[in-house]
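User: quick one, fold this
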Amino acid sequence: MKRILLAGMVVFLSAGIAAAADPLEGTWRTAQDDNGNSGLIKVAPCGAKLCGTLIKAFDPAGKEMASNNVGRQIISDTVNNGGGKYSGKVYSPDRGKTYKSKLVLRGDMVTVNGCVMGICRTGGTWKKVK
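Assistant:
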């Protein structure tokens, strides 16, 4: 009986460790893009990696606006490299390009940078809202 209880506790504790959320998971408010627009990105697991979907878009005045990009995956193939550093891909709606990305997480802020064909740009600093 003790072995069964011990085995059950091990399984329960292991499941809790495996289910721990990555610090990048949650909802992030992006910096304004070249057009002054920003958005809310919901980051969640997608398989063994992380992905982020645009769930709301805002105009330069901060008012919610309609956008064909709502529902689009903005962050994809993203992995935690440790030490608050992530790599993957990020789509830039204002330029219509997908960049190889590097994200650096510091508390409730993440700095986003990306490169495509040797051309690099910063996506600014995003702030966690949830």
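User: anything notable?
Assistant: The longest strand covers residues 49-58.
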